[in-house]
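Notes to self after the Tuesday call (sharing in case useful).
The group wants a holo model before anyone commits to mutagenesis around the pocket. I volunteered. Ligand is phenylalanine. Logging inputs and output together so the record is complete.
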Amino acid sequence: MRKTIDHILQQLEGFRPGTLSQVEEFRVQMLGKKGMLTRLFEDFKNVEPEQKREWGQLLNQLKTKVQEAVKTHKAQLEQKQEGAAATDDLTKPASFTHAGSRHPVSLVLREILDIYASMGFAIAEGPEIEDDRHVFSALNFAPDHPARDMQDTFFINTNTDNPILLRTHTSSVQVRTMETKIPPIRVVCPGRVFRNEAISARAHCIFHQVEGLYIDKNVSFADLKQAILLFARRMFGSSARIRLRPSYFPFTEPSAEVDVSCNICGGQGCNVCKNTGWLEIMGAGMVDPSVLEASGIDSQKYSGYAFGMGVERIAMLKWQIKDLRLYFENDVKFLEQFFLW
Ligand code: PHE
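Result:
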């Protein structure tokens, strides 16, 4: 018995199968009906009772070793075979890998910034936690101005002359830019804004805006109109038209709401544009001279325009997304439908 065991151990050590059939051959040779190990277990019946324990342990250990060797060699060879098969047929479709996708708001934001970058606008950013001065007073909102109520503000600290709050629009970055830069100024200011509104399909307490500001000598309303038209055509297609309706913002004069011709029906009227043929995309106007002066810019020398749009809204119009809440639910089934085109 000792001799056979040594022989098996030797074989096990030198066992380097190159094919699966060699592994099978080895298995039969050891564990098959007439295999070496099988026979050893038969011989074990004749072992003296007092030696049974020692020999039994030895045989069991040997069996486990052989079984393990068979298993690992088999697995290794199978894996090798699979690898070879994968490069055998190079026309085989690749296995699916789940690639992430950009959030629709990020996609549209990036496109907006790209369009304005091509017109020479730089990017400016400012803090989300702001003070009253940058969000309201430097923008001509009088202390009791009803527009302050219109923008339901999240206040953080009101026990001061200049309350701390979450910015309700990115127009605060206009102010910060005018305070620190010398004209000509041409910036777009992307960012998150906050309003204390009940969340619904059409309103959310957090959303994104892009503000635009251009200040130079002789900037006119015609320049503003042309820049908006260019933007609308790049964003909604070359046949897009724009319409400006008189409006009011404390910091611009004159002010306008800007509509773009409905990209679904081409202006014929449909349920997206509520049969008007137009979709509202932004607010805009000529920067009020008193706003320029409040930030230290000589309004006799310089003039400028500003505009502001909601990024979620542009994405909704572009892709006919019906519910604002979808942007924040992070359902992959929704998110993975959007691509950079
Ligand atoms: N800040 C305005 C808003 O939040 C939009 C706007 C920006 C209007 C710049 C005119 C000029 O509604």
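Two things stood out.
The longest helix spans residues 52-88.
Residues 215 and 304 are 4 Å apart (CA to CA).
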